[in-house]
Amino acid sequence: MAEITEAIKNEVREIVLDFFAEECETDISKINDTTNIFDDLDGDSLMFLELIEIFKKKYQLDIELKTIGKYSVQNPVRTVGELIKMQLLIIEHGNNIVNI
């Protein structure tokens, strides 16, 4: 778990935007917080897993996928902005994300 700084917020945003631009073959300038991952980018749930693995390695997170799954059922992610927010919460709270 880590304290979320502006640098981390910017880094997470950059990683997420770059990831979707590359994976969905979309110009990064067309992706913003309100971009719907499924409808606008034709994204899928496997992309979420890839991103989670990227952040687990980058921030040495020890979080279980079932914990993220429990959180996601109660807090579904549809937009890029919601995904960025969830990633920041995972970095900040780890396995305690289900208790917030």
Short structural summary:
It contains four helices and no strands. It has about 100 residues and is an all-alpha fold. Helix 1 packs across helix 4 (about 80-95).
Task: Kindly describe this structure.
The protein has 100 residues and is mostly helical. It has one domain: Non-ribosomal Peptide Synthetase Peptidyl Carrier Protein, Chain A (Orthogonal Bundle), CATH 1.10.1200. It has four helices and no strands. Helix 1 (6-23) packs across helix 4. It is globular, with a radius of gyration of 13 Å.
State the helicity in percent bands. 55-70%
CATH architecture name? Orthogonal Bundle
First-last Cα distance:
14 Å
Q: What's the helix-strand series?
A: HHHH
Shape: globular
What's the CATH topology label? Non-ribosomal Peptide Synthetase Peptidyl Carrier Protein, Chain A
Q: Which CATH top level class fits?
A: Mainly Alpha
If you average the pLDDT, what whole number results? 93
CATH H-level homologous superfamily name: ACP-like
Topology summary:
Elements (H helix, E strand, L loop, with lengths): L5 H18 L21 H14 L6 H10 L5 H14 L7
Helix pairs in contact: 1-4
Structure keywords:
single chain; 100 residues; mainly alpha; Non-ribosomal Peptide Synthetase Peptidyl Carrier Protein, Chain A; 4 helices
